Amino acid sequence: MSEKRQILKVENVTMQFGGVVAVNDLNLEVEEGEIVAIIGPNGAGKTTAFNVITGVYAPSNGRVYFDEKCVVENHPHGKQKKLYMGENADAYSRVLEPTPDQLTKLGMARTFQNIRLWKSMTVFDNVLIAKHLHRSSNLFTAAFRGNRKEEQRQRQEVDELLEVVGLTDVRDELATSLPYGKQRRLEIARALAANPKLLLLDEPAAGMNPQETQELTRFIGEIRDRFQVTILLIEHHMDLVMDISDRIYVLDFGKLIAQGTPAEIQSNEKVIDAYLGVVDDAENT
Amino acid sequence: MSLARTVLPYVISGISVGGQYALIAIGYTMVYGILRLINFAHGDVFMVAGLMMVYLVASVPLVLAIPLMIALTVLLGFAIERVAYKPLRTAPRMSVMISAIGVSYLLQNLALYITGGLNKNYPAIPWISDRITVFGMETTRVTVITPFLTIFLVAVLVWLINHTKIGMAMRAVSVDFETSQLMGIKINSVISATFIIGTFLAAVGSVLYFTNYPGVVPTSGAMPGLKAFVAAVFGGIGSIPGAVIGAFIIGICESIIKGLDTILIVNGAITEQIGLATFSDAFTFVLLIVILVFKPTGLFGEKTTDKV
Amino acid sequence: MTETKSRRASWLALLLILLFWAAVILLDQIIKPTDKLYMLLTVLQKGSVYALAAVSMNLLNGYTGLFSLGHAGFMLVGAYTYAIFTIPSTARDTVYQYYNAAIRVSFPEIFSGALGGFGTVLGVALAVILAGLMAAILAYLIGLPVLRLKSDYLAIATLGFAEIVRAVFQWSKLGPITNGSNLLKSFARTSTFKLSIGEMSISLSTFVPVLIATLSITVIVLIVNSTYGRAFKAIRDDEVAAEAMGINLARHKMLSFVTSSFFAGVAGATMAMVLSIAQANNFKSAMTYEILLMVVLGGIGSISGSVMGSMLFVAASEWWLRGLDSGRFLGINAPGVFRNGFRLVVFSVVIMIVVLFFRKGIMGERELPDLFRKRKKPAVKEATE
User: Fold this and answer.
1) In this predicted complex, what is the ipTM?
2) Which of A2, A68, B300, C220 is most buried by its number of CB atoms within 10 A?
3) Is residue C105 part of a domain?
4) How far apart are CA C133 and CA C145, in angstroms?
5) Residues A190 and A155 grouped into a single domain
6) For the whole model, what pTM was predicted?
7) Domain count, chain B
8) Cβ–Cβ contact A147 with C under 8 A
9) Residues 62-121 of chain B whose Cβ lies under 8 A from any Cβ of chain C
10) Same-domain status, A205 and A163
11) CA dihedral for B87, B92, B93, B99, sign (positive or negative)
12) Residue C371 domain-assigned?
């Protein structure tokens, strides 16, 4: 398409749980610097797609490329072979199932639909732990403070990051004592602390009122510009999605039914059909 | 032929021990199915049942002592749940497990205090502790009765669970605790019923078990308890038939290992004792670890997936 | 600013430790075996062993959230390793009277030959470290299959492993190494540790276990406060989030398990030193339960809590509640009730009360220094609100 680098490419990914095909032959691409949204009614397989991309689930079939390298690959084998109900069953032959932490090390970081902060720790520590993957120390040198310089640098970086996201005043509070909107923000800050190339946000505006949503929209735009990250997000709030996305993918019953710019999606018949009667309750959640 | 002849006695006593473990294992598996709790105190309740029998026989006739012992044991099981587990219903699972360990510690120490740490001879129960001859081998009648009694009790239990209202409630609660509560099932009575059934079977099991052993000491319950729990895990925790089959397998393996030296010597595999009997207890845990590594859900367990 | 503050805190901690050591050495000289206070020394010795065991268990159960019940097994390995490598050659054959001892190496002997008194110390230290290493290696092997298991399955699998270890060590075929089911004795024990300066002889029998425990616990504190300790806590709080943030679960769980077991091994070695015997049959799952209850008493997730919990536990069961066993307690004479075992009953009831009603234990998740900081915090909060 253009000379820009492709950060993420999902190729023929199918995810089947028992007899349920949650994601069916999904293909999507994200280029460097883009904000791309995945939308779709509840149960369309959006979060499942996220979980496949981030390594929580190994897909039943298909490939995921990250930063132009194949990082996940699977094909129906063993018991799955007979049960497999998706397409392209013979397209792949390798099994490459990294754990989520390995993918995070490559440069992906995510947030969760239902906020998953570390409850017993302060805001500062929550963000600091995300720096753990960039350590150069081992247990020994860390225990005897051989990594003092690194630790100091990381602490400083975290303080700077907290300043940017506006959480400095709650730095030493327990993460769970924050109001909901700030917890969401903290989760994003934590993901950013891992210095990702690709940031995956799973319903960042869930449970927010229109004003908070607006603030968040602005915040996500700022993050992209300041940290030079590419963003892939799942969202139900159409205002937010239409506002900031460069491109949108629409999923329904695990299948991709449309893709394009916000304007194209808004006028797409299939999308309107899929959403009819669902829009209301999606906005309430 | 000679192999079969030497192994057979161990298999028979193994089936018997397995039947006793099965009666304890059901208590573990049912409680785990409903509360997701390893009831570490269950083995000690079993030991207390044994001790109660010793003391009751000293003061009342045997006909009265057995039902009285069973009733008191059931009461103890019920009380433990009410006092030590019910207040922690909303607490993390680790807290409840710690509470169970605490109860186990308390029961053992109580037993130590009351018995003064001495071995208490288990009363000989007429008829079932008589010596009889089966297939040309001399053994006690209880050895022969145990597997049949176990299977009978399990059949009754399975019938109860499948055909009564409380049984249905139990199955519902073990599938989904919260939803069952929302659907109006009286969770506390279901849990109490589970503990009552579990301790009842353990009490019956204690009569069969201790009859074959010289006596009861405060730690008598720990090992059979652990083994019964392993049996429950082996069969797939939450599954009653699984627990019973697991218990028989463990009982038989344990018994064969106890006699493995002799079996091997008779069959010419080795020439002298090599002390394999030391591993009769440990082998249970080897089985446990093998099953956990290769089939964590046990032989008949259901698979569950975590949602992110 | 926080940097200088934390540095000052470290110096203060060091000073307090040194003072504590000096006090222990002093007490050891003043208190005679016939004194009533002699129990204090016993409590300090045994308490150190249990404190270390409890803290190392807390690293795993409290900080990493891995509910493991294999502690007694690792302590057993530690105790045996230490004992085997410190039995002097003259006593070796008496100890192994039924077997032909296979290992005939005594570290203190080897080194004292060349280095004198310092060599003995070095030999004992090496044996203690080797005890930890053996436990750690065993933990690594066990960890490979079992650390993938979920909470209670992990608990039961580690418990099972401890039982297997106990059986293996009692196996007659291993008699030449482990002395089978007979006990090991005559090895370097605390009561023999003395410092001779000219005519003066300073007993170190209480200081040595205290020293081992404080050094080990300090290392654990350092680990907990390092980036690895934070990663462990992240795993405990939310495994999924930890993994998503780049923490390799398998590796970190293994690190925590191996470290915890290393110190359990050291605790086992110290226990052998203090009790002057090592016997596999003492390291039953009941010992693990007791240590777990000490951790709970002090507060899961608090190191100072674990230390207090175990010291209290040992003091109460060895000393303060003794009267409950011997007929007279708090001036009440009731030999009928206060007889053997009553102390443990009272004790178990107290523990049940803690488990049920004071679930956070003595300290909750706080540490000792937090208690002094506490006064300032609410004031700050009021100001911001």
Assistant:
1) 0.89
2) C220
3) yes
4) 20
5) yes
6) 0.91
7) 1
8) yes
9) 83-84, 87-88, 91, 93-95, 97-99, 101-106, 108-110, 112-114, 116-117
10) no
11) negative
12) no
